[in-house]
Design brief:
10 strands, three-stranded antiparallel beta sheet, single chain, 4 helices
């Protein structure tokens, strides 16, 4: 079951840090651990629910996002239009961790439902952190096998034009990039690695008709909506639009 909590108090302007009573620390589900921390103690039972929570982006996190270049003037959405989605996920060791996504407010509930479904099915996620943890560098996030959503990417990064980019609107997500690579047209190479370029079912791998594909498709998302193979990528349309009905194909 999805428990979507929206915490009010996001009053700062689009480029300001503002003040907020919210913190940028995840509020875990029962005995869930924070991103990057050790797995729950052996004396504490692992959470049995995804315990999704949708919150405004805290001021401290927003300052880090701006400093990392994830947002700047000219980007198509503001802090007020984004949400912080906190949710439990199962890692590749079978342990429950607490993850964080930043996404557009109009798709945050959809993402909460999708990742609740993946949690319930024990689909493994390597890690789930907002990209300021990687100084806003999407390539570094991919190399870390990090599942992430919003990033108004800099000009040096792929898919950078912000007016159309689903990532810049917070309506795209890359899931387990190592296991689900994309073919970068700039070098005609697989990024972050060609190790999993073949589409064979396996741990953390997305295949057409599989669990992850169905979970996103049922919510109206489109898989690898790009002219080159991009197995990690789901979005709601290009140019970016709010989530729509179930797509064809």
């Amino acid at each position: 079951m999805v428990t979507a909590l929206l915490v009010a108090g996001c009053t700062a302007g689009e480029g300001s840090s503002g003040s907020s009573t919210s913190t940028d620390r995840p509020t875990p589900g029962r005995n869930a651990s924070a991103p990057g921390s050790q797995s729950p103690s052996a004396t504490s039972p692992a959470p049995t629910e995804a315990a999704a929570a949708i919150r405004t982006v805290p001021a401290a996190q927003w300052r880090r996002m701006v400093a990392a270049g994830m947002w700047r003037r000219g980007c198509p959405v503001t802090r007020e239009q984004l949400r912080r989605v906190e949710i439990n996920y199962v890692d590749f060791s079978g342990e429950v961790q607490r993850g964080v996504l930043v996404a557009n407010a109009d798709v945050a509930p959809s993402l909460a439902r999708i990742f609740t479904r993946l949690f319930d099915a024990r689909f493994p996620i390597r890690r789930m952190q907002s990209v300021e943890a990687y100084d806003g560098d999407s390539d570094a996030s991919l190399r870390a096998d990090n599942t992430a959503a919003f990033n108004c990417r800099r000009r040096s990064q792929i898919n950078a034009p912000p007016k159309k980019s689903p990532h810049a609107h917070g309506r795209a997500i890359d899931v387990n990039p190592l296991e689900n690579p994309w073919k970068d047209p700039r070098c005609r190479c697989w990024s972050p690695s060609d190790r999993y370029k073949a589409r064979r079912p396996g741990q953390g791998i997305i295949v057409k008709g599989g669990l992850v594909w169905r979970a996103f498709r049922d919510e109206g998302w489109i898989w690898q909506n790009i002219e080159v193979p991009d197995y990690m990528h789901f979005d709601t349309g290009y140019p970016s639009t709010p989530v729509r009905g179930q797509p064809e194909g």
